[in-house]
Design brief:
The chain is α/β, with parallel strands linked by helices and 479 residues long. The protein is 61% helix and 7% strand. The termini are far apart.
């Protein structure tokens, strides 16, 4: 470590103090609040980068308090501040954003940012730094654009820089401190894709299983292809949803750790990946059939409408979620070219409505435990639990009743050799659904009941026993 305690410490914002890009986030916010502004962006950019940043800053109101910040760097800066060292925030972000960040952190003595006429990046930033603090300074940055500043600095602080950039800086400038983030990129992308959510798309196989046609290899292969097409397209919507919900996710106790909300993955790469996944999913869906592609497009339309509009309306959001589950089953029926019974559709609507309410109630319980009463970005309040509890439990019981009626139907008596064994499935459903609601009431439920069911030993055993009872009811015949 180089002794530079008397030199001013100049800190970059985007990618350094915060791992995100405030300009990209501001543009995303503008598009979210004013969708028609998407067509204005090229004209704003045509006036120059500095003018573009100013116009975007005026049209947005970035919530700097919820931005992710590098805690290790902040701790270091606060320690240097206590020593009496001068701290300067110098960023290419617009001065409105820079001032808001400085005010929130209450740490910097001076703030340098871009205005409508000057884009404070590279050499321009170096000139502004020299004018503000003189030639003796230490610079904390992260990217290749900071190389001219590091070469002119007394010492450098490297913040999660790439290996080539770090190597170049070490050859030309003494290193005061380094901050690295050893993140598993593959794991981060798998989390962003929400691969575990692909389990929901196993519902596509349900019509094939209920028709007991899983020995038809042609149909099975077609459904497998449809499963991957649906899953890739669904992952694209999950990523789009995460990017759309950055603000609300950052105010959520658990969702704030998602890859995009925490800025562990960059927004622009997320957008590119989502587009690629969506295109691939659509191609696979078309390979199944035009009808299946139509089902996937309908799913995408509904889920996009949910993300942009419907998710902010109380109860409507959970109703749409339950319908999206049922839509997967219908898509599976189309892919396998098998009929779906009205019993299955009615059962799926009730059970998935209950599971959607489990998700909302678990969020409200977590909110209540933190002493908060309202959600961010959704029209739910903790007091709503008195209505949501009975609604969710009664919906679960309705699903069991529908299943019981299915057992006694003439259709079931024909298709199952021993349909009475299906009552064991009904008992399993009662236990499993009641278990989910008890765990929710105790505050032990994951944000997603599906994730909980996969991790919970009792749920796994119950589901396996229900599956075994279903197969026994179909294939076994007791005299």
């Amino acid at each position: 470590m180089t002794e530079t305690s008397l030199a001013a410490l100049v800190v970059d914002l985007d990618g350094t103090l915060t791992p995100t890009d405030t300009l990209v986030e501001s543009v995303l916010q503008v598009c979210k609040r004013q969708p028609h502004a998407i067509f204005k962006l090229p004209f704003w950019l045509a006036k120059g980068r500095a003018a573009f940043k100013a116009r975007v800053a005026q049209a947005s109101s970035l919530d700097v308090e919820s931005l992710p910040y590098r805690t290790d760097l902040l701790e270091y800066l606060r320690a240097e501040k206590r020593k009496g060292r001068q701290l300067v925030l110098a960023t290419a972000a617009h001065t409105d954003i820079a001032d808001a960040v400085a005010k929130h952190l209450d740490l910097f003595d001076k703030v340098l940012g871009s205005d409508e006429n000057h884009n404070l990046k590279g050499v321009n930033k170096l000139e502004a730094i020299r004018e503000a603090v003189g030639p003796n300074f230490v610079y904390a940055g992260d990217s290749k654009a900071d190389l001219p500043i590091w070469r002119a600095a007394q010492a450098a602080i490297l913040v999660n820089t790439s290996k080539p950039v770090a190597k170049f800086v070490r050859e030309h400038t003494p290193i005061e401190q380094e901050f690295t983030a050893n993140l598993n990129q593959i794991r981060l992308w798998l989390r962003a894709l929400r691969v575990h959510q692909w389990l929901k798309n196993l519902l596509i196989f349900v019509p094939l299983l209920t028709a007991f046609s899983f020995d038809d290899l042609d149909k099975l292969g077609t459904v497998v292809l449809g499963f991957f097409g649906f899953s890739l397209a669904a992952s694209a919507t999950y990523m789009g949803n995460d990017l759309w919900d950055l603000d609300s996710d950052r105010n959520h106790p658990r969702k704030k750790f998602r890859p995009f909300a925490s800025a562990e993955l960059p927004i622009l790469k997320g957008l590119a990946a989502a587009c690629g996944l969506l295109l691939t999913g659509l191609v696979l869906a078309l390979a199944v059939s035009q009808a299946f592609l139509g089902m996937l497009l309908l799913y995408l339309f509904v889920t996009t409408t949910y993300t942009w509009l419907l998710k902010s309306y109380v109860l409507i959001d959970v109703m749409v979620l339950s319908l999206l589950y049922t839509l997967r089953i219908i898509a599976g029926s189309v892919a396998a070219s098998v009929a779906t019974s009205s019993w299955l559709l009615a059962f799926s609507v009730f059970i998935f409505f209950s599971l959607a309410l489990v998700k909302r109630c678990s969020e409200l319980v977590a909110l209540q435990q933190k002493g908060r009463e309202t959600t961010h970005g959704r029209d739910y309040r903790a007091v709503d639990l008195v209505v949501l509890w009975p609604l969710g439990v009664s919906s679960a019981l309705c699903a069991v009743v529908v299943f019981g009626l299915f057992i006694t139907s003439a259709e079931t008596q024909i298709r199952y050799l021993n349909p009475q064994l299906l009552w064991f499935v009904a008992i399993g459903l009662i236990y499993w659904l009641a278990r989910l609601w008890i765990k929710t009431a105790r505050g032990e439920m994951h944000d997603d009941p599906l994730v909980f069911a996969v991790r919970d030993f009792g749920s796994r055993i119950t589901v396996l026993l229900m599956l075994f009872a279903t197969l026994a009811a179909h294939f076994s015949h007791w005299e």
